[in-house]
Every structure is written in structure tokens, then in C-alpha cells.
Write a structure and sequence with these properties.
7 strands, seven-stranded mixed β-sheet, 4 helices
């Protein structure tokens, strides 16, 4: 394992313990390492990483870590925007630093959004990938922040 993939083991241990091969496959998907053996196969297509599972659609994953852009969708013949499984939304919120002062700072908010899927296996994979993305965002945010900045907020939400 390289330096980047060893840092990605920050996401929830219970899913890692229950599904160790799936966890390893998602880490390889995240780091774009191809794997052509076993149940979980990882491939590449242009700037996408692919997770191939028997009896399921292909999970396509795009990331641009410099701009905190992460998108994953299941290739089921729909337009990618309509079938997003996991994505990151970036927002900003103005925050008063103290009650007596009118000085406002901007806090960055990174929201990892999971699209609910009634298929429990697909939903589990979406949640595990979202936790992996969240861990990576939190790691990158802690490295590039100065002491004067308001701590950015990163969270996972789910939508129907």
C-alpha cells in the first residue's frame, strides 16, 4: 500500500470488520489501483474508476481532490446526474466570531450526500464510499488550514 491509501483507513471500523474485501476494493477504487481478480474488480475508464460486481451495475467514481469534487454513480442506463449515488456539495456560511462584534468570517461546509437506495447492498456501498470520502476531506482540511481560519465543517447527509 502506498502513503495515500494507508491514510484512507480512517472510516468506520465496523463496516471494515464486517466487509474487509469490500473495504479494500473501495480503497483501491478511491486510489485508482486496478484489480482484475476476485469478486470485486476495479478498473479505469478515462478519468473514472470503476467497481465491477457480479449481478450489480458498475459503480463509476470520479474525484478531483484539489477542488473537493467527488461523484459516484451506478451505471444503470440513466443520465449520470439522475443516478448520483454519492456527491460532495460545497457551501459557505457567515459566522459571527463574538456576540459583541460585527465582524463576520466565512466557514466552509463540505457535505457528502448519499442518495438513498432501497437495495441494501448498493446502499451499504454508497455509505462506505461516503465515509471514505469524508475521511479524506477531513484529512485534507486539517492539513491546509491556518490558525486564524474558522474550522471547516465536513458531514454526511442522506437524501431520497
Amino acid at each position: 500500500m502506498d502513503e495515500n491509501s494507508s491514510k484512507l483507513n480512517l472510516f468506520e471500523m465496523s463496516n471494515t470488520d464486517k466487509y474487509p474485501f469490500l473495504s479494500i476494493a473501495l480503497e483501491k477504487l478511491f486510489t485508482r489501483h486496478e484489480k482484475s481478480y476476485g469478486y470485486f474488480k476495479i478498473g479505469k475508464e478515462d478519468n473514472l474508476s470503476l467497481l465491477k460486481l457480479p449481478f450489480f451495475p458498475i459503480l463509476k467514481f470520479y474525484k478531483n481532490e484539489n477542488y473537493y469534487i467527488y461523484r459516484a454513480y451506478w451505471d444503470e442506463g440513466l443520465e449520470p446526474e439522475k443516478k448520483l449515488a454519492v456527491r460532495v456539495s460545497k457551501k459557505q456560511k457567515k459566522v459571527n466570531l463574538s456576540k459583541g462584534s460585527n465582524r463576520e468570517e466565512v466557514q466552509k461546509i463540505y457535505e457528502v450526500i448519499i442518495k438513498y437506495d432501497s437495495r441494501s447492498e448498493i446502499h451499504l456501498i454508497n455509505k462506505m464510499l461516503a465515509k471514505l470520502i469524508l475521511a479524506r476531506i477531513e484529512e485534507n482540511l486539517s492539513l491546509g488550514r491556518t490558525a486564524e481560519e474558522i474550522k471547516p465543517l465536513a458531514m454526511i447527509t442522506e437524501e431520497n
